[in-house]
């Protein structure tokens, strides 16, 4: 798989103009006709850059990570370094939008170097992109305009700090707008929780906990056709619990039912729930319930 270490090499590959700054590129589209992607198709590639883009695709298929970009509404997309990118079918997008690309080294020594890793939306798949309202779109465009002005100006000692400050503001607004999107998509979030629990029910009933062990959140997310980070963030916003916490809750609830079956030992319950070592199960149970599995059994055993 081809990997691009520099921003210039990546832009050359895309057929886009060389950057004004070796580690930063700001491209604003403001024309009248739909724009074809300079490179008609691409096998899977990776790079060391962050990308923030607002575009509406008219036709063509774009794959980001494991997910196909399959919608045509305008959306804000965030791509992180070393994510796999692939497209074909001559992508065409509307003439208005922007792309900000910056090498991860551009953030060295700045407030964003660590902060950007906390924004989960860089790990979302493209179908989980941020859909902006007209008002939100104007707010983002205003910030991008300020970034573009500074980018086009002659570089001085203040340029990078100003651009970093604007990028920080853009990401904070995006974070706010994502929270709004989670709220507006409450029905979708509830559906995700139902699918999450249904997957675990099917996994349990088919004996896969015993055979394969406890499923990972990545495995569950893949089955639900969402990214791991989006699944956890959506559930956290709606229920107050992450995907990992919901998995633990499911295990504890199943354990409570099984512990009231006198013929099963605590170790057997642990193995049936996919724990490799019974002491791990006992430790988790006590952490969540405040008492050990044996104490729970004694307290609630059937007469």
UniProtKB/TrEMBL annotation:
Q: Give an example GO molecular function.
A: DNA-binding transcription factor activity
Keyword Cytoplasm attributed: no
Q: What name goes with this protein?
A: Helix-turn-helix domain-containing protein
Keyword DNA-binding among record annotations: yes
- Report the InterPro entries cross-referenced here: Homeodomain-like_sf (IPR009057), HTH_AraC (IPR018060), Tscrpt_reg_AraC-type_HTH (IPR020449)
Annotated coiled-coil segments of the chain: none
Q: Which organism is it from?
A: Tenuifilum thalassicum
Cross-referenced SUPFAM superfamilies, in alphabetical order?
Answer: Homeodomain-like
List, for all copies, the residue spans of the domain called HTH araC/xylS-type: 194-299
Keywords (alphabetical) are: DNA-binding, Transcription, Transcription regulation
